[in-house]
Fold each of these.
Amino acid sequence: MIKTVLIDDEPLARSMVAEYLESYPQITVVAECNDGFEGAKAIMQYQPDLIFLDIQMPKINGFEMLEIIDRQPAVIFTTAFDDHAIRAFEQHAVDYLLKPISKTRFDQAVTKFLDTRGLAADRENTRKLIDDVSHTGGKLERVVVKTGTKIKIIPTASIIYLEADDDYVKIHTDEGTFMKNKTMASFEEQLDPLQFVRVHRSFLVKIDHIIRLEPHEKDSHIAVLSDGKKVSVSKNGYARLKQLLGM
Amino acid sequence: MSSIPYTSSRQRLINISCFIIWVICAFIQTALLWWFGVDINLALNDSLISATLTSLCCYVIANALNHYLPRRKGYFYIVIWGLVLAAISVSLDRWILQYIIHDQNYLSQIDLSLPLRFFVNALLIAWIAMINILWNIQQEHKENEQRKADAERLAREAELYNLRQQLQPHFLFNSLNSIIALIGRKPEEARNMTFQLSDFLRGTLRKDDQQLIALKDELEHLQLYLSIEKVRFGHRLETQVTYDEACLTKTLPAMIMQPLVENAIKYGLYDTTEKVTIGVACTCNNHMLEIQIENPYDSQSNKPRRGTGFGLRGVQRRLFLLFGRTDLLETHATTHIFTSIIKIPQL
């Protein structure tokens, strides 16, 4: 049995997909969700093989929802009109359906899924897509993270600094520290370069929060931050800081 | 009369050409006088002073024309100005020279040559004035072309934006998707929604930006829109439209509320996951119709508000174009409620 979850904020749009799926007895709809929060929960709970995912949804959009789930199912995106997203889908060869969705087009997408199911390449494509869409749309303005079973939206304005930690990045904010499965490099690329500086291989710091710089060993410095923490500044990082501050 | 924008490159050009005139005048006059057998010192003194005065006059007229471009009738004054300046420069020249050159014989020779000097100066000044005028005309022509191109580009962009707004692709495609979903199980509702959608689209396309319509008609049109949105989001969208009976005959620009209500629904629905109530309240007195639109929102989520700016700006711009006032649109945000208020003066 193939388990699927439908995620769309319009009940009629979900019922449409459910109706089309009736001709595929091997596929069972295990949950229907109104938004990304419910979607993420249902995915953790049911571990579906396939999801139908709308992009424009309340609170967090479809891409942001995908970022916070651990085990990623195959995804067929559904959207009415979004030039930006459609370009990204084509570029990464990820399947998508345009509303209103025709049965023919729907069958194509599902058949393709049934044929290629479990191919790692497809999942890889989706991963790349998420990385890509989250930063071609301008500067990152918020980060969505999961803490236990809760989902938290962090505005980038409340970030103090980021710290690399194995495969994760620790996000230090006014309200505490959160973990995100993402690379420092991608954060560095997506955050506003006039506000955030990579002062060290492991630290990306918001300039406004640097209170002072103290010389450390030969060639390196220590930055004291507004929350009292001290982070190392490498030689390159120091040069970058100097350039940005116009020293 | 028109003022030409002052450009420093232009000023530099005037400075340079006046300097060149000064050098050439001084050089030619000295050479000529020397060739006529005048003592080189006398020739130098004479030509330096007259060249300085001539190029000063050129400088004056060039600068005057830099800031003031005469129309056809004004060309006559330019000729008079040229003659007056030439006369002034020659008299000044003569007046200064009598203190510098003490050779009475040479001074009387200068007196003889005064008409010739006057003539040369007048020609030079007229020539400079003509070049400046030609240049100004060409410049103005170029600016006009540029302005025309800019205006056309702006008009095209606005038209495209309007078309896009009218079509509202996201709304349209989602509505069509809902209709298709309804066709199978609730054909009656599907039929209803199709009628509502076509009435709404017809209303949108028919309306002229400049036209003032009665609040009653605008509210009916809005009702169509709201009922379609309710089919799509019925499970969590509530709307509350209130108005005084007396206001129904008041007029407002067609489609002015639409972008604000759209925004209210969009941000109301996308900022929260709970039930959402959108409030539209219309009140009025003799001079003013006031419409207040409220939606819940979450100041915490800090979502990038794409589109709001343009929607609000568009409304503001239209109100300004129609009534010449910038205080007709207000927005307030508390932590949970976003309110926009439009005031429509009743003429």
Note: The longest strand of chain A covers residues 27-33.
Amino acid sequence: MDQTVAAEQYDVLVVGAGIGGMESALKLGDMGYKVLLVEKEPSVGGKMILLSKVFPTLDCASCISTPKMAASIHHPNVTTLTYTEVEEIGKAGADGRFRARIRRKARFVDEASCTGCQLCESACTVAVPDQFNADLVARRAAYIAFPQAVPKKAVIDRQGSSPCTFECPAGIEAHGYVSLIRSGEYEKAHRLVLDATPLVGTLGRACYAPCEAQCTRGSLEGTLPIRRLKRFIADQHAASGEELGIEVAPPNGRRVAIVGSGPTGLTAAWQLARLGYAVQILEAAPEPGGFLRLAIPSYRLPTEVVERDIDNVRALGVEIVTNSPVRDLAALHEDGFDAVLVATGTPRSAPLGVPGEDRLGVVGGPEFLRGVKLNEPVEVAGRDVVVVGGGNVAMDAARVARRLGAASVTVAYRRGRSEMPAHHVEAEDAEREGVRFAFQVAPAEVLGDAAGAVAGLRCVRMQLGQPDASGRRRPEPIPGSETTLACQLVIGAIGMAPDTAAFATLATANPNGTLRPDPDTLQTGVPWLFAAGDVVHGATDITRAVGQGRRAAHMIDRFLDDRPMDGFDLRLPAVDKAAVLARQAGYAWRGPAADATTLSPAPLDFTEVEAPLTEVDARVAAGRCLDCAVCSGCNECVAACPVEGCIDLHARDEEQDIDAGAVVLATGFQLFAADLKPEYGYGRFKNVITGMQMDRLLAPTRPFNTILRPGDGKVPERIAYVMCTGSRDETVGNPLCSRFCCMYSIKQNQLLMGALPLADITVHYMDMRAAGKRYDEFYEQAKAMGATYVKGRVAKITEQPDGNLVLRYEDIEGSGTIVDAEYDLVVLAVGVQPNLEPGALFPEGDLTLDDYRYVAEPDEDLNPGATSIAGVFVAGAASGAKDIADSIVHAESTAALVAAHLERARLREPEPEAVPA
Amino acid sequence: MTGSSAAANARRIGVYVCHCGGNISDYVDVDRVIAAVEHEPGVVVARQAMFACSDATQGDIERDIRELELDGLVVASCSPKLHVTTFRGVARRAGLNPYEYSQVNIREQASWIHTADAEGTTEKAIALVRGGIAKTGLTEPLEPIVVETTQKALVVGGGIAGMRAAIGLADLGLGVFLVERAAALGGHVRGIGAMYPNGRDGGRLIDELAASIKARPSISVFTGAEVIEKSGSFGKFSVGLRVGGPGSETLTVEVGSIVVTTGFETYEPEVGEYGYGIDGVVTLPEFKAMLDASAGPLRHAGRPVHDVAYVYCVGSRETPTKPDGNAYCSRYCCAATAFASIQLGEADPGVRQYHLHRDVRTFGKYELLYERSRDLGSIYLKFPDAEPPEVALEPDGRLLVTVRDLLTGGERVAIPADLVVLVTAMVPRSNTELTGLLKLPIGRDGFYNEIHPKLRPVETTVDGVYIAGACQGPRNSSESVASALAAVTQSAVILKKGYAELDPLVATVDAVACDGCGKCLDACPYGAIELSAGVATISETACKGCGGCVPLCPTDAIDLRGYTNDQITALIDGLVGEAVA
């Protein structure tokens, strides 16, 4: 054990703050012992606080629980930690004490400053089944467990990063904006994207959407159209004429120069301007935007969309100076820029490196595309065009050539189709637009005609050898396999390179011309000089460029503020998709949005090929989101919270060690999962509910304020109870009786007869186990009130078209025949399953469980509550099914054993002596 | 305007009306209550809450007390039994004297009992709250009575529960006097062999406990002893004991708490009841003793026992056939019978056993006993509640049990048997003298009654007197031990600190006005009043604040703190609306 950190010292650690744990903790506190009470849920109270009334006194469960709950956080000797897991418990040393590691789960809400106002809850855009209402209704991701929660502090159910958000290289809260669209908050969704980048419309069209590849719904019916949803909000915003609505800090008096106005430069400028910097962008080309404006064809990304996004940046006061190639970075610094960011990308084409490359009619891909965008196109009409390369630039060039009237367009690529680096949709669309592909051919020579113009491309056929460093199989020429592609125009699109010759004196450059700043801080060897984007990494894509721009802005700000240059990537780990799918059992099939791309085999113009989502489509599409991480990261709670700094969506779990002289396991039980009895139809038949659900329907904090059946909201007139669901039943592996189901059913029978005087209540039972003080009298009272009790196990339940249910059973006491009886609502009296957590707490494996995996009490006759480990005790239903009254007595009894153990330990305790370390 | 409302005018009272999550607000119009009382004299703030007892609302009230400098607090919610300590705690935490708080019960006294009359119940709630406000207008700060506690406990009854309680108390450093009426410790369990649920031998368990007691010098054991006198109160009782039968030695012990573990008696069937009295018809304890004494197949009256019939619920759940009989279920007997049948089945695999029951209540893990019993061949038949089996002696000397079996379509079945076992109930022990001495409350079932099965499961209405084990109601041995240890916990809570705080809501005597007539002495059920020098004096620690003496005093010399005559008058004025313009 780590001796350097002093663990907090307690007399007793109580695990679980249900009724048993609270009772033990409070009694030990009353005796003067220092108690740590740890509860994994956000509130103390366990299952009891969720109940309506309790048998046989019919006290309301809240009234009995709330004083104990309040006492658990006000008691001077009891420290209560909610939303905290005990991870493991071991021996602290030779003196019999225990050391426990506890993990305080991130609430994402500061417990001390939360006032319980619930504004975050109203603002939250995510709804998930409410476990505190037995899943009858939904709750928000930001929530307070229930009205009587102690502490009454919000918690945000944020299980990690949703896969879409986690995957985005640009750091955009994908799940967040989808969730806002689902709520109809399009402007807020737009602002959430703006929080990362000004390029909303651009990314909504030209992004390759790595998020969609990660969408959990993708493994069901198909991914959400996350990119098109982004386009939808960009279009909505453009049409609305609304202000950006982005917070901008007041000018801080410092200036930053950014060289290059591509996605990296624009994003960095945007972020820095929002932080109060005066930013100037210097762009070599006549138009800003880099590849967005000068390469990506407008059938994919219309020029006006890019210009709108660039206007976003200008709106923050960023000055963009075009036709201004920068040759001298030091001069910029001397001119008063506190920092300079180089984000010049990869503007140059890589040469083909074959003879004849300098002929008229050979052009680089980026240059070709740029000419079109600047209205200075290369002559294409009627010519046969060969595009060399298999990347996205090659696809763009080929499709543009089709639009410019080429007689034919052939893409020549040296490997096979599956090795092409172009996004598969780009390649497929190119093919659908009439582009031909020649695979496994490499250019050997550009052939010329008499005038020196291109006449063809001589190629060598290739075969694929062993995989190379990129993982793709290396193409090798097949000797003597030469062939010629006749053409008049060759577009070389085999790669792009930076143009950094002018910066090389200040920034370290790699042999390929890319710069080499620190990969985390993006700072070069010259402190005020930063480099980011493709000029560092080589050609990537827009999202990565945006991500680099954000990182550069963050680091420049940290640098100029003289703060540590960290804290950029605060993403929580991605949630496990399998776990997300596992909890979706009840979700309906929802088809994906239809593809809206219109392609012509012979495209004639640059009209955008993809249609926007309609508002209805967008809402339906966003509604398919599975809320993988539960919290979407939409930030609405942060905006709504009246206490500055109370909500921190980047909080992390915190672990700490504590020492205790004794441990009480009060981890309670789990209710039987009723869908494990498929013949009763729970989960399939909406009007089959569990006993816990009925208790919620009856509770003072009931979800519907009346008793109704969930299928159609009808008030039930004939209600049946099926006892022993999951108990006394070898078919589900549980031969034990759950002890309290008979009694809670009798209680519910009485409450139902009070609430619905005309309803008929029938209970199908095996033995009515009303064994306890005043229990049988309570049973007799229910019979006298009119409930009917029928002996015999129900074999099967079927559902009628109107939602009614037919129970089949053997009428043992009556006719002795098989009977079908129809009811409006069926309540399954589900029983108890062991909570398996305590066994896992002791890695040394010395906690003995009984045959049914409850915590064993080896000396139950004389020391109930003592376990197989001296100093570890059990209270309440963790050692076997108990009703509330028995749990309380058991917990008080355990307290006496704990106190005796502590007293013995105290008397044995030697006088402390100074021991040299 | 009366003087009391003038006094109230000077006060700063906060009023909180609780919805109790619908328990109140479904019937009482809380908005109207607030509107009706917010301008009452002295009221500074009136608010409503979904659950006044919730921690959040407690926090709100505390804030109001501090920020609005309240000097009086009224919460209109449920019975003070539930929450008076909750809201006194709220007051204390906010710096307000806890006794400046009054709880008004608009749930048990309004919403729950007038569910058909929303208008009437709202008006009643308004009147009750007004009364509470008027009474609170006259509160004064009071300090709790601090009692030094004697760090010793008395355990009455030396069965398994009492023995375990004594050890538990001693382990916490408390001195213990363990008193047993019989000549030896051990009670019922001492005579039982193997017991469910774990098959351990009752006699050995008792031996183990006896050894533990011997090893603890802080436990003094008195067998053949009885409690004959009790005085003092919570934290400081004097208890007189007689040791060794009438006319023998008596002594007095000083203790801080008393744990009563006097156990149960076995139901004794009347002669003729299910054939009781016929040779071969035995009770479950008698049968168990036969089993424990026998090795291998059982013999009775010199003959082998081939067929055994068990008749369940003898003395329990009797009302269908005996309206004034025991209504309760004895809880332990189904499992005990299943266990006995396993014992016999294992000793004699050829034996035939028939269980005539109404419901087999082998709850929880005891279900495994039921299963094992059936695996060993026991046959279970269910008879109608109102049609119990009949037991007759056949001419051949065997027994014949006739029963209608509901599990085979109500067929009448005749079962010849060598032994009929009457599964007899646990009944309350007759202990009139002790009950009277300790003023122990008795429930409808005849067993001692705890204050509340969930809130205070081993406490009685007499502070410092606890009950545990089967004197509280039928239960098995390990359950008795658990409740005994719960009583240990409860004793330790009050005794370990060395002092305890009592409510100062006690009666006081104006010595000048008192003429020493002594009428109050007879009225006091707690013996808290005595005459000295011609004047009544009331022991603060013995007085329970019941107020029974107050109206009897011909000179109005007695007043009850917290419920003074002026306060009650003001309360009544508030209730009937006279104090309100």
Note: Residues 884-908 of chain A form the longest helix (25 residues).
Amino acid sequence: MEQKLKTDFDKFISTSNFSNQEIKFKKEALDNFLKNGFPSRKLENWKFSDIKQIIQKNIGELEFYNDYNIENKINDDIFIKEIEHNKIVIVNGKVQQLSFEYEESDKINLTTLDNFNQISNDDNSLLSLNNSFSNKIYNILVKKNYSFKKPLIIYQITNKKVSNTNINFQLNFDLEESSSIKIINLSDDNSEKNFINNLFNFNLGKNAILKNYKIDKKNNTNIKYDYSSIAQKENSISETFIFSSGSDYIKNEVSCNLEGQYSSAFINGIHSLSKNKHHEIRTNTNHSYENTKSYQLIKSVIDDSSKSVYQGKIYVDSKAQKTDGYQLSKAVLLNEQAEFNAKPELEIYADDVKCSHGSASGSLDEASIFYLMSRGLDQKTAKKLLINGFLLDVVEKITDEEIKKLIKKMIGLN
Amino acid sequence: MRDKQIEDLKDYKYGFSTDIESFKAPKGLNEEVIRFISNIKKEPDWLLKWRLKAFERLKVLKEPNWQKPKYPKIDYQDLYYYSAPKSFKEKPKNLEDLDPKLLETYKKLGIPLQEQKRLNGIAVDAVFDSVSVATTFKDTLTAKGIIFCSISEAIQKYPDLVKKYLGSVIPITDHFFATLNSAVFTDGSFVYIPPNIKCPMELSTYFRINASDTGQFERTLIIADKGSYVSYLEGCTAPMRDENQLHAANVELIALDDAEIKYSTVQNWYPGDKDGNGGIYNFVTKRGLCKGKNSKISWTQVETGSAITWKYPSCILKGDNSIGEFYSIAITNNHQKADTGTKMIHLGKNTKSKIISKGISAGKSDMTYRGLVDISKNASNSTNYTQCDSLLMGNKCGAHTVPYIKNKNSNSNIAHEATTSKISEDQLHYCQQRGLNQEEAVGLIVNGFCKEVLQQLPMEFAVEAQKLVGISLEGSVG
């Protein structure tokens, strides 16, 4: 694999126009990845999902060279009609369209980043891989006191032109003081057997609000890793919602750093799995300041021989007194072959805190099914009703009414 | 200081000779030492081979490093793996020679004077004859067919039982410290309860002669045959001092059909001084196997001592309808560190497990609950309930919860809850208003917090443990 990585990297550099500084940085990132390779179960974070093995088993030899020069046509059919929105369209890891037609152009600053995110660490070699092979990185800066009028929908499309390929993508958001944005991240996969590696970086200034909704619904055989890093200043709020269902394998990782007083982070997620899918959500909330708050609710419905994993960690620094942290994960196993693994973790160094977590997993409640059947529903409908109710709980946490309605419709929950 | 003491004792009138010292094995860990231990204990050939096999395995094993408390590297070649019991010459002669702090604690616990002496290995006079007490108990047990002796004795007298069960729950290929124990264990307890016998009393190492000198690599094996019941107590509430820093004991429990084993531990080894110097490393492997149908194993532990406690008393629920329970109180103060919890491995159908863990950290200490609940594919209709609560006192300590939950069976239910909080000002205020001082108030609240676990302890133990909880937290408030 090492040789392949090196040749593909050289090919990638020679066909793109990066500055010398960028090339130097990318080389360093590649060296870091070469040193560590794909993460495997030997690492604590990857204990339940050995991505090295999963890639080997499902894809085999990966192509690391992704030709960003290929032009792709965008079919208008894929756009959401229900709500007016701004768009970013990404095809096979390349930004094809950026339009902020509903916003005041002088309130948004769109640049490409020369200084990369230095979030490459030995612990997460996939970030290094992303840094070395991703194309130009866009930075969207929302200026002080500006709130997006309409949501921004990020369409992440893959088409048949790529297969057995590693697609890396990175996007950066800077929210200045008292600004706000609503983002829907929609995956539309028409490709097979690719390894898609996404990195989203959010910097929230004082009083900023981020609402981020991630939807992966369309069935496909891709393997995905999606990392969101959210840094929050005083009084800022982040809300993340994850609907994870379509791809064969996804690991969604959300890392929130609460670095200012009264900042709060909410992460809610749904796993709706069938066949032999394997999805994981990992949340990491770091409370490093006083009076911060975090909340996580993750629910899984697991059918056939699929596997759902939740790893959640709440870290409370000794400075972070008066922290309020809550975490709940629940799973319903519908089939003998289904599997649920959880690792809810608390690491606490401050005494004046309120932190708790709960995790429950099991089958659907027989008594509830019986109750519904005695009211004339057949078993299938009764089960469906219960599952819908179970998941609806999470969807109801979405604070934006318009988007909530849209998402309910998209995922078929009413 | 010590040299002076020895010097003073040179002319000790009973003049015990030092030839007993010659039973010390040379320093270091190698095949010769293991042969020496085996030889001195006149062990059968199969056991020597077993030890050597463990030693072979040990050569390739590495010390685990995933635990939260880190400790300085241990030089295994610098340890003595066998030494015969100490002569009186080296032991303190009078209570006055002991650390006054220790005596104060004894007083608070209400431990009788003679008992204090015994605990510190001071020669006791003829009035207090623990040997004769033990003998009386032994007769009752023998009448019922219960075997309760040291494991060395069991190896000689009941080799078939030992051979059959030793290493059947903790194989010699297990993790580093368990394997180390298998290679070099020196002594420990052996219990066998014959079918359909309810052991009439709580068995305790306390009643076993010479129990205090089992050394740092203790091995305990308890077998409850079909339909039997036993309650076993380990340790005691009084602070225990020991010069061996590393303690790597192995405890194996086997419950056959319809049998029940209740294993209670109160651990109060020397935790080191206020600045975290010294103190014992308690790296124990405890594992119970519910081998038969309807069997039950219940662990209860009160962990207040040791500089580092690193242990996970576990249950393997192999038999259908078997039950595993784990009740734990862990208290850390000053610079103590604890990483403890349990593993419940559900293999049989209709198996049930319950985990109640209470952690209290104060001072500059660090406490981790780490546990695993694993329900395998075939363990249908199994349930687990886990509750871990942590209490923090001050912002220089840490409390962590790391549960691993694996559910592979759709007919099984797992519920897990954990909370972390501090003692509320309201509660403290209420108690203080009623005339308790702050320390008493904290003691009262903490005892309430731990009540669920304390209730599981045998009566006489529970009372002492309750006092111990208060004492362990002394100086942590205000």
Note: The two ends of chain A are 47 Å apart (CA to CA).
